[in-house]
User: Fold this.
Amino acid sequence: MDKRLFVSHTLVEFTAAFFDCEKIEALGFTANMNLPAVADGRVVSTLNLLGRTGDYTPEVVAAAMAWQPALTLAFLKLQLEDIASATLHSGIRTPQNAGILEG
Assistant:
């Protein structure tokens, strides 16, 4: 697993990154950002975000990178608590859960 941030900014980049891009695009998403949580030189987890083309500007990416140490600590805490995996939901309204898209 690569230890670097991955961002797809365009629909072409997005579709190249996801085998199920048609399903994801049908939900209204056309861009993504994967922020790795790196500790002791290894990736312990990732925060994977979906958005729309143009969402992940250089300013947004820089802000996400500033949070990377806190993200890493959160995932290490989950590992210490023997939680094999976790899905954290922020409550952000997506096109799907906002009722914009049918589904």
Observations:
- The chain has four helices and three strands.
- Helices lie at 11-17, 21-26, 58-66, 68-80.
- The longest helix spans residues 68-80.
- Confidence is low (pLDDT under 50) at residues 93-103.
